[in-house]
Design goal:
The chain is mainly α. The chain has 7 helices and no strands. The protein has 2 domains: 76 residues, Rna Polymerase Sigma Factor, Chain: A (Orthogonal Bundle); 68 residues, Winged helix-like DNA-binding domain superfamily/Winged helix DNA-binding domain (Arc Repressor Mutant, subunit A). The longest helix has 24 residues.
């Protein structure tokens, strides 16, 4: 396949890439950029395409991988830790830093009391889920529908959130 034939085939298939790009990015401009970047990669890596294979699938794969790579770059950039809160400890002597385990004890006592105050029908599935049981396993052990298990765990979480609202960070 000549370079001209390859370019023409890629250009013809480009129109079918746009709806998929739109589905991936959920933004018109980002979708256009994704299709353009896919086309650029396809044309610059023409020698990697094997004649007789599915060109459309090859282009979709390039586009999907490009989208994933761009997404990962954005996530990596936006997940930087703000170290300004920790600068105060930079020049301090470690002997002056203490930990107050009493606070943690009070918190755990409050959590345990809140769990104990849950009704038995909510506490049992919640604790089973907490220790690692899956919804289906809880439903089988308690012989109740899986929807009931999910509902009871949801209600237990809501009641615990209400009982422990004093510990909320944004409060």
């Amino acid at each position: 396949m000549t370079a001209l034939e390859f370019n023409n085939l890629v250009q013809n298939i480009a129109q079918t890439l746009r709806p998929v790009a739109m589905n991936l990015t959920r933004d018109v401009d980002d979708a256009k950029d994704l299709v353009q970047e896919t086309m650029l990669k396809a044309l610059t890596n023409r020698e990697k395409f094997k004649s007789g294979t599915n060109l459309k699938a090859w282009l979709y794969t390039i586009m999907r991988n490009t989208f994933i790579n761009n997404y990962n770059k954005v996530i990596k950039r936006s997940s930087n830790v703000d170290s300004a809160d920790y600068l105060q400890y930079l020049n301090t002597d470690e002997n002056y830093i203490t930990q107050n385990k009493g606070t943690a004890t009070f918190v755990m006592n409050d959590i345990n009391k809140a769990i104990a105050n849950l009704s038995e029908e909510h506490r049992t599935p919640f604790m089973m889920y907490y220790v690692g049981y899956k919804y289906l396993e809880i439903a089988d052990k308690l012989q109740i529908p899986i929807g009931t298990v999910k509902n009871r765990i949801h209600i237990a979480r809501k009641e615990l959130k209400q009982a422990l609202k004093v510990y909320r960070q944004d409060a």
